[in-house]
Amino acid sequence: MTAAATDLPSIQTVRANGLDFAYFEQGQGPLVLLLHGFPDTALCWRDVVPRLAQAGFRAVAVFLRGYAPTDLAPDGDYRIDTLARDVLALVEHLGRGEKAYVVAHDWGAPIAQFAANLRPDRFEKMVLAAVPHLRRFFLSPTGAQMKRSHYIFKFQVPFWAESTLPKNDFEWMVETLIRKWSPGWEFSIGDIEPIKANFREPARLKAALAYYRNIPKIMVNPALAKVAFAPVTVPVRMIYGTEDGAIGPEMFQHQQKHFRGGFDLCEATGRGHFMQYEDPAWFAERVIEYFRTP
User: Fold this and answer.
1) Lowest CB count within 10 Å: 24, 214, 223, 293, which one?
2) Partners of 24 in the beta sheet?
3) What integer pLDDT is reported at residue 97 of this predicted model?
4) 3-state DSSP call for residue 273?
5) How far apart are CA 245 and CA 154, in angstroms?
6) In the chain, what is the greatest distance between 2 CA atoms, to the nearest angstrom?
7) Nearest Cα to Cα of residue 162 among 192, 131, 190, 203
8) Which residues of the chain have pLDDT under 50?
9) Residue 2's pLDDT is what?
10) Cα–Cα distance for residue pair 116/114, rounded to 1 Å
11) What span, in angstroms and rounded, lies between the C-alpha atoms of 189 and 52?
């Protein structure tokens, strides 16, 4: 099932951690909070949310801080600890005091890990997709991964991304990032246009880049590093694509020691970075299966 460009969900808002967060939801039951990554929006979940709802969950897909129509941070704060506290506040407001399940892709995954390390008592289980544990990613990358991460280094250069990404209707973003990250994904205008629309606003593009430009703070701030690199004690299923051009399959091996609450590594064979777009039915089944397992 692939949503057409006009089949956009009804957007609601909730006040959390000082900002108005936009989200869409479906279903009743235990809360499942879905977090997107870059370059993306919460609409990446629009074919997953109905399946989770049908399985008996209340699936809530959130537009992260700075991504339209969620508020921009008035103070420009996009540090990982602030992003994690956004998640904790959303769980508090949307979860009615109960523990939440989390599904997180790309940037959503490290944010969810950090939130779990701040307050493990707020979460039942997590499914993290396309990004390994932060200690594995930052402190022991392979040589091949250093090459794949070229864009992260480029994003640190002032104004490079701001001038490069919008050129030719975001050709570099689509062709150099999205297409190479998921070579098997036959995306449509309906998939890509919401992403472009968000980044056409200079303030939104700057906000998304700020996620990356705050990475050095993790490395040099002992308090942030302590939480970011600590073992996760919430049960985790991690899904990685064998054809992922952003983060190689080898990066997901040998990280069990970083997940002490239970760790299940799940291979998305033949799928790339944007696996939830490529095969939403398969992805949703892996989520439901894990969340239902005692």
Assistant:
1) 223
2) 61
3) 79
4) coil
5) 17
6) 50
7) 203
8) 1-6
9) 37
10) 5
11) 25
The per-residue pLDDT for 9 is: 86
SS3 78: coil
- Phi and psi torsions of 284, nearest 5°: -60, -40
Helix (H) / strand (E) containing 87: helix 80-94
Q: Quick count: other Cβ atoms within 10 Å of Cβ 197?
A: 12
Reported as a single tens digit per residue, the pLDDT across 74-90 is: 999 999 999 999 999 99
Q: Which own/partner contact pairs does 145-151 have at CB distance under 8 Å and 24+ positions apart?
A: 145/247, 145/248, 145/250, 145/251, 148/245, 148/246, 148/247, 148/248, 151/176, 151/177
Q: What are 228-241's pLDDT values in tens digits?
A: 999 999 999 999 99
Q: Is the pTM of this model over 0.90?
A: yes
Picking from 145, 110, 139, 175, the residue whose alpha carbon sits closest to that of residue 244 is 145
Any idea which residue has 């969900």 for tokens? 9
Token output for 102: 């989390």
Pairing of strands 19-26, 58-62: antiparallel
User: Residue 69 in contact with residue 9, Cβ under 8 Å?
Assistant: no
